[in-house]
Amino acid sequence: MSSPQRASYEAIAKNYSTVIVDDNVDLAWFKTYLDPRVKIELTLTNFVESIERLEDWADLCVTGISHSFSSDTWYRSQNLTAQSDLAGKDILDSIFAFAAKSTELRKLRVFLDFHAITTSNLGNIIEWFYRQPVQVLELTGGCWRAVDNAMKHRFYQTILNCTTLDKLKLDCIDLWFLKFVSFTLSARSLQLFTFDMDSEMARALSRRLQGSRVKHLTIEFYSGNSVDGLRCLLQDLDRTSIEHLEFSGLSIDVETWCELVPLIANSPLKILTLNAARFDSKFLSMFAKAIQNNHTMYELDLSTTCIANNDLQLLIQAFTHSSRQLATKRIKLLQSIHAIDTLTVHSLKLLAATCGGEFALICHPLVVVFCL
């Protein structure tokens, strides 16, 4: 960095109240030019060097930390309000025990890597919810078989009725609680990932969503026995607060998807996200015709690595049609690899802009797939 550039950064650095940095930052410069009260979200990138330097951060206000170390040596700042961990089997107990005793922690994201969740782990999470106004809980992966139903009942009863909870993500879970636990969903963002959602469970979820505060719903599951429940869920959308619906991992054939298209198109959704390995031309053709008559949806996100250019053009033309009187009409194509060349992307952006809309290609780190 040149001297003039460095001077300009130094002149404005103290104006920031929150910064996001990794552990390679020049800590001496950081402490000199930033407000000592600045809230820091710290990403640890190198295990050995990070652990050796953690004490250097002790006098700073680290409110968020993210790392992927499978070790019990991790940062326990009293100011910590958010934590993200890729948890090895040996540190799960420490993570949840820390949460239970923390006086500040509000957000916890843990990738469990299919390790077993224990009764003690859930007990600590429950204690955390009792002690703090929890805002975010994300548990990705993990095996729940070792926990008895009584503890699961307490766990679900506690977290689902938490009035401060803004985002809840539960992965690899048993959805029996939808039928047997008394709760009113308070989270604004609900992400459910499961292998066993059948139509009965989907109907139960639909009933629970009515009257809830959920605005963003993500559903990922792999059962082909859920079509009737999905139909019920889509039919009941106007009785819910859901504005953003995301589907992923659904084992449903193209013909069935085509049956569901009118329900999607007639829904009051504002944002729809579909994750797919590929999009079938028959489905997209029907979807384009139907979505042209929708007057609430302003954003369509497609996460895929395989979609024909002519299908994408048809979809853009329908979604940005002049009859759709919306201030914003945006289509995002999310890909883990750039499968479309630069020239094609430019022409698609131009097509959308000409019709009064937007098109964006975003490189996404991971595409979760199902086939259409």
Could you please describe the fold and organization of this structure?
- With about 375 residues, this protein is an alpha/beta fold.
- Among the domains are: about 1-65, no CATH class; about 275-370.
- The chain is about 35% helix and about 20% strand.
- It is built from 13 helices and 14 strands.
- Strand 9, helix 9 and strand 10 (about 245-250) form a beta-alpha-beta unit.
- The longest helix is centred in the middle third of the chain and has 13 residues, at about 120-130.
- It starts with a helix and ends in a 9-residue tail after the last strand.
Strand order of the largest sheet: 1-2-3-4-5-6-7-8-9-10-11-12-13-14
Largest sheet: 14 strands, parallel
For the terminal residues, how far apart are their CA atoms?
Answer: 49 Å
Beta strand count:
14
- What is the average of the pLDDT values? 78
Shape: globular
Give the helix/strand class.
Answer: alpha/beta
Strand content: 15-25%
The radius of gyration computed from the alpha-carbon positions, rounded to a whole number of angstroms, is 23 Å
Protein name: RNI-like protein
InterPro entries: LRR_dom_sf
Structural topology:
Layout: H1 3-12, E1 18-22, H2 27-33, E2 39-43, H3 47-53, E3 61-67, E4 82-86, H4 92-101, E5 107-111, H5 119-131, E6 136-140, H6 149-160, E7 167-171, H7 177-180, E8 189-194, H8 199-209, E9 216-221, H9 227-235, E10 244-248, H10 254-265, E11 271-275, H11 281-291, E12 299-303, H12 309-319, E13 330-335, H13 342-354, E14 358-363
Parallel strand pairs: 1-2, 2-3, 3-4, 4-5, 5-6, 6-7, 7-8, 8-9, 9-10, 10-11, 11-12, 12-13, 13-14
Helix pairs in contact: 4-5, 5-6, 8-9, 9-10, 10-11, 11-12, 12-13
